[in-house]
Amino acid sequence: MYQPLPGYISPGPLAPDLRSADGRDKPSRNDSLAAQLSTVVGGPVGDHALIGRARFWTPLRVLLAFAVLFLALGWSTKAACIQQTADGNGQLSLDWNDGRQYVAMCYSDTVPLYGAERLNEGAFPYKKYWIEQTPEGGTEVRYMEYPVLSGLYQYLSMRIAKTWDMLPLPGALQVVIYFNVVAVGLALAWLVTVWATTLSAGRRPWDVALLVCSPLVIVHAFTNFDALATAFAATGLLAWARRRPVLAGVLLGLGGAAKLYPLLLLGPLVLLCLRADPLHRAAGGGRTGPGLGSVRDPRTFRDWWDGRRQWLAVVSARPLGAAGVTVAAALLTWALVNLPIAALYPQGWREFFRLNTTRHADPDSIYNVITSFTGWPGFDGELAHGQPPSILNMVSLAAFALACLAIGYVALTAPRRPRLAQLCFLVIAAFLLTNKVWSPQYSLWLIPLAVLALPHRRVLLTWMTIDALVWVPRMLYYLGTDRKGLPEQWFTGTVLLRDLAVLVLCALVVRQIYRPDEDPVRRDYADDPVGGVLDRAPDPLLPWLPERLRPKPGRV
User: Fold this and answer.
1) Cα–Cα distance measured from residue 427 to residue 506, given in angstroms and rounded to the nearest whole number
2) What pLDDT, on a 0 to 100 scale, did the predictor assign at position 531?
3) Over 80: is that where the pLDDT of 62 sits?
4) Range of the domain at 147
5) Dmax of the chain from CA atoms?
6) Is residue 146 part of a domain?
7) For strand 84-86 and strand 130-133, is the pairing parallel, antiparallel, or unpaired?
8) In total, how many domains does the chain have?
9) Fewest CB atoms within 10 A around its CB: which of 40, 372, 426, 449?
10) What is the Cα–Cα distance from 390 to 473, expressed in whole angstroms?
11) What are 518's strand-pairing partners?
12) pTM value?
């Protein structure tokens, strides 16, 4: 029976169950921004409060509720672009007159793609092709330009929209129904992203509030289809954290079939497993599995299946083995998803890769920023339509490769093995900064990784706000100066400011990698909540590496 200390008398009887999740992070007590915001709901949590006792409003449910609210705000920012108007003949059409999509800043790729990708015709992506005029007066054959899962998602949404239109239900233009169907699916995918990221955060679930309440969600949740990829990437990292390497690979492979970026997360995973010592046979600080000799000879299918499971368990218990299983599962899953479309419609399947090869530097790339302020014609000079910028492609690839080498050097030489989320954030940030394309919605890729890698609320909120505000000069630049829009330099200037903000985040992540004692995630004897087999695994000095690549002593 609990007895109060002398001089401290409880005003009422104590609860029979005094268990408390005291290990959970309390941002209202250790973060000034959260402490100030908490005054709205009664102030910081008390010194003697029992943590984790709410039966319904758990942190996950609170975060999901706020996610729904911010997704609703995101839909409202796009609603102006699905308003209808009647033309001179009384026919309904979308009200995009006088550049409404830019003036109202409601533009979403999903709306024009409904007609541009011939979805309005009920066509199956990758099979359907059409002829377009080129700026030089010629013609070219076009197909669906998205990866397979994103293209199939658009097709499924189109079928649902057309079915809805045929039923006695509240109606609208098909493109409006299509947008709302797409938005519902993307909202569910973003909720999955929030769910997986919250579980991956371990004892710091409230860090995910920055993911949930990010201004980037309001602006870009429904700009394109990237929430599908973030859901697969987040659940893939969660599966890895739960020591499910096969499932992690399958989910990352599916993400790669929606957008290629989830496959980039395999690099940090392999690198950290390599640092964890390939000769280490007991992942997780002494946990061992059955030896290979214990797998019995297969006499039936069940024996064979049990043998394969035992073998997989043995391999996955070691960091490099688990990484190999994940990489193999990811590549196999990506191939299995793409193979049917590639075999049946090879030209349509290659369209995504062809366009990414032939497209020039996008307005929001660092290469166009330089061109905008200096008049530099680019690495390839003036090119005809469809002519690939070969030098730019090589420079972009080389810059990303160099950035990855630098990240690898940081990972190997840090005094303590970096956390997986830290390296994943650095790799995706490097890809976006060096790539010739940074579509505005790509910033969604960074948010789940940022809140896990660098849980500093003021810093992350500053970057997210800058990134979200890039949308304003972007829309006014697309409106055109002839319609009272902004000159290009107003837009490219904000793009440069966003890039600098991301570089600052990268510098802070690297600083915490080399000074792990300053990493808030690793306080209270925590290691790597997303690490899976890497969490609390030995961190050897790697004598098999050259001296310059071995971990450097430092503040650990």
Assistant:
1) 10
2) 93
3) yes
4) 60-85+95-284+319-549
5) 91
6) yes
7) unpaired
8) 1
9) 40
10) 30
11) none
12) 0.90
